[in-house]
Hints:
Layout: H1 19-22, H2 29-44, H3 54-63, H4 78-87, H5 98-101, H6 105-113, H7 120-132, H8 135-138
Amino acid sequence: MKEKQTLDEKLGTPYYIAPEVLAKSYNEKCDIWSCGVITYIILSGIPPFNGASDQEIMKKVKMGKFSFSDPIWASISDQGKDFITQLLTKDKDKRPSAEAALQLPWIQQAADKQRENVSKDAGMAALSNLGKFNATSKLK
């Protein structure tokens, strides 16, 4: 894709699709949104936008509202939550580029340490949540 080029096909999986893709006017920043969704799921085992049907999920994606209310988030750093929040910024013009996202404190800290220290309990809770999410059919 050329810089400043926008696409207009509605493509993607409801869980990971960016709001601007649903509006059929998007650019490379839709992938940043998807990275935010994937990071959210990896850390918690649950999707930020969930519903009983694809239509319900897409309605929530369009609203762009998510939370860190599940108990699993108590063990995730504020920098980790800030990283996700920035990637899941509804306004694509305010969402960071990939280059800018790599400079965010959580990524920089992880790069310095080579990995984020997550408690064993938090890791097991996230793994359990992933199982409940039915990863085999929904992460294809």
